[in-house]
């Protein structure tokens, strides 16, 4: 599990540092802020942020809109525009690259937080609507205690339903509890995951042993529902 990584692109260093401090207070992980186009592109290549906060008007020949165009063409991450100039021409140019949110300076901590969370949520929903349930999915974003966290799918051992909540158990034995359903979270996983019971989904990469009514993964014993056993055997190619 890791915090959401945010890249701030802002050419006024005091403003950039203030935004980063606010983001840290909100529980996000902030990368070193980029002050111009060149630094932003380098950070995108080397740091792989989860979301970018872009000032539209940067010093130099390249603007935040130029960076947004690179993000849209080469990276599958959302971005938010910042500006102190919300005139019609600026808004019209910004709309062409379809930012996930648009913040006008000065903005409050609450406005910044809500813009990030909505941008991440909409981005995740869009990806779910346009992607298949295949092994290309690498990470899962979960909203726990009011903030999104990022979990690598390969780190998930199993998922257990507990009434209106689910428990996501990691191979490190850490646990995350969120309010959702197994059916909903199953759509966000890849084909390495198998539903083996009405209350359990497991990562097939961790299965050590299968018995008639239970399986073992790491040190955990998980029950197998009668209606799921054949699908489990087919999934792991056991005849």
What does this structure look like?
The radius of gyration is 21 Å and the shape is elongated. The chain folds into two domains: 2-130, Response regulator (Rossmann fold, 3-Layer(aba) Sandwich), CATH 3.40.50; 155-235, OB fold (Dihydrolipoamide Acetyltransferase, E2P). It has helices spanning 13-25, 37-47, 64-74, 88-95, 109-130, 182-186, 229-235, and strands at residues 2-3, 5-9, 29-30, 51-55, 79-83, 101-104, 139-144, 147-152, 156-162, 165-170, 175-179, 193-197, 200-203, 207-210, 214-217, 220-223. It contains seven helices and 16 strands. The model has no long low-confidence stretch (mean pLDDT 87). By secondary structure, it is of the alpha/beta class. Strands 3-2-4-5-6 form a five-stranded parallel beta sheet, sandwiched between helices. A five-stranded antiparallel beta sheet has the order 11-10-9-13-12. Helix 3 (64-74) links the parallel strand 4 and strand 5.
